[in-house]
Amino acid sequence: TASSATAGKRLTIGLIPADGIGREVIPAARQVLEALPSSVLAARVGFVDLDAGFEYFQKHGEALPEETLAALKSDCDGALFGAVSSPSHKVAGYSSPIVGLRKKLDLYANVRPVVSGAAATASGARRAIDMLIIRENTECLYVKDEQQHEGPDGKYALAKRRISERASRRAGEMAFAMALQRDGMRRLMDDADRTWKGRPKVTIVHKSNVLSVTDGLWRETVRGVHTGNAAYRDGVDVEEQLVDSMVYRMFREPEAFDVVVAPNMYGDIISDGAAALVGSLGLVPSANVGDNFVVGEPVHGSAPDIAGRNIANPIAAIRSAAMLLERTGHAAAALAIYRAVDCVLAAGNVRTPDLGGSSRTSEVADEVCKHL
Amino acid sequence: TASSATAGKRLTIGLIPADGIGREVIPAARQVLEALPSSVLAARVGFVDLDAGFEYFQKHGEALPEETLAALKSDCDGALFGAVSSPSHKVAGYSSPIVGLRKKLDLYANVRPVVSGAAATASGARRAIDMLIIRENTECLYVKDEQQHEGPDGKYALAKRRISERASRRAGEMAFAMALQRDGMRRLMDDADRTWKGRPKVTIVHKSNVLSVTDGLWRETVRGVHTGNAAYRDGVDVEEQLVDSMVYRMFREPEAFDVVVAPNMYGDIISDGAAALVGSLGLVPSANVGDNFVVGEPVHGSAPDIAGRNIANPIAAIRSAAMLLERTGHAAAALAIYRAVDCVLAAGNVRTPDLGGSSRTSEVADEVCKHL
Ligand SMILES: CC(C)[C@H](C(=O)O)[C@@H](O)C(=O)O
Ligand SMILES: CC(C)[C@H](C(=O)O)[C@@H](O)C(=O)O
């Protein structure tokens, strides 16, 4: 049952479907949020439809309109973002709206749980996986500070990669805190239901054998979060992986990872790799988290090849909605969604094509609602 | 039989075992090179032992001594590099010798064939893979131009990522030329032996949805190599993949890739991922290629956990030696090594632990020699 602190409150969620299948999976997530019984979510949910995306850019000359940002800040408790298409050629003035959103709302960590379940295993994953990827979400190459120059041998271009102590510390804090929190949750579970059975562990990803200064700062700062906190020191193990080895090991022994913390670009790459291991990108949710705001976002892209056909898997978006609820103080409602999704996946009869089925996006959403 | 052009010539190979298992796999590769019968390699092979590595740095204060570079340039036709250890903390003055070697000898492309075979399949790979990764080898974040600064919120560090038209063009040239060459080779094979059955294809990896300037230049330059050459235009298909999707798709449908061309850092990450797909990093060779020199290098690292125990898989190093022969005009000798390795893998009784066996490094080398 919903806690009294949130009972009767209003929860306003900004919906930004953006491009491609974002326009199918965000409505599916909305449908599930609306179907939550008041026994698990006492707050009344309201929605605000907001614009952004590449298609919007093509019509209006901007990918992330000021009104969207203003509405998020003044009217919303959180938001759901769909997916954004990539221009197939360089387009002057265009800049990814999700990258902009992360920076402008200071959503400094991207939390990506990658968990295998019955359905995932059936569709190709071979092993139990229960990884939580914490991706630094504001800097690294994503500062997008790039210039092109003309040199004696032709054109060349330079991009800046920025790593700061502050951003590294915040990502590290999130990683260690989540490692302990996950451990607490696991203690409430049966041993048979637990994938990770060891002590909580954080794997720090970097490439400091090449980037000794930037990744050196990253690694030392994240390590510093561990050594500077008694609860982390006593309760959480730390290890390091070079990003190339990380991808290798993740494929060879994914069960060896608990919480993984990575700079922005490595985190982007690793989370797609991890998604492949659990059977489909269509299953993996994320939350862009800041101190004051959260934006749920499926890890998948806009999938132009299947857009508009009502066959995209809405589960990543639905799970992202649950992550949004979890982070806005509605844990019971989040849990109800996670469980309903797990039931649908375990039953296996209602599945989109990415999982080997032939169900439609809307049928999966309906089915999840039935299990709430 | 060896071609008359190379008969009687001398082939001098620099050996740089460097750290860890590099000291076990390079001698194994040397043993195989020495065992080549004169019917396949008419050149007399000589070796020059050269220093480099992190351990060397700890003793002598430099990781890539001038003498090594000088000897490579004046005395050697090519070289084999083992592996290099990464310092576990930041070490002033240390810089990776393999990265230095690539730059100083202008070895602008790193050619990494990732091919599944009987042994690979037995040890976990599920599908036929026959990918050739061309990794740009001189720039991107590997220019190692980094600085640390003090800001109002604490320390921050900046690294430069450089992408030039020239380096992109050279990597692109290599990719399209190799795509055609592979196709020529395949036409000589039985259909049943061919993994890739379509037209030659080059997949350009980038992240231009975020790095529109640097990766925009990369992508347009590599595309330009294709459109600017009639043989490439007529004979090779081109596609693009964002690096995150690339890692995802590579896991889901590795058989969909022929030649893959990537900027330095993405190439580093992708090739480790691809190695996981064929069962072991211990199988995957590479060649660092320039216009005037080639350095064979196993894709694996120095593996400190198993170093000194004579259990490292020498096949990646042995195959790297074959790539070196191929690139220095000794194709028949290279082929003899590739075939001998394939026989040993197919027989399956002599395997190192990474492939599920219990043979020693030296036993694998002996076995390969028997099949030459
Ligand atoms: C669309 C793109 C800019 C984005 C990213 O790279 O962060 C996406 O891949 C993601 O993972 O959310
Ligand atoms: C050792 C390291 C500097 C190197 C690289 O990143 O290039 C290695 O991972 C490789 O792939 O050859």
Automatic annotation (TrEMBL), chains A, B:
Q: What is its EC number?
A: 1.1.1.87
Give the UniProt keywords, A-Z.
Oxidoreductase
Instruction: Supply the name of the protein.
Output: Homoisocitrate dehydrogenase
Its Gene Ontology molecular function terms?
homoisocitrate dehydrogenase activity; isocitrate dehydrogenase (NAD+) activity; magnesium ion binding; NAD binding
Q: Which GO terms describe its biological process?
A: isocitrate metabolic process; lysine biosynthetic process; tricarboxylic acid cycle
Question: Which cellular components does GO assign to this protein?
Answer: mitochondrion
**What family does this belong to?**
Belongs to the isocitrate and isopropylmalate dehydrogenases family.
Q: Which residues form the Isopropylmalate dehydrogenase-like domain?
A: 12-368
Taxonomically, the superkingdom here is Eukaryota
* Coiled-coil region(s): none
Lineage at the top is: Eukaryota, Fungi, Fungi incertae sedis, Zoopagomycota, Kickxellomycotina
| Pfam families with a match to the protein in the record | Iso_dh
EC class: oxidoreductase
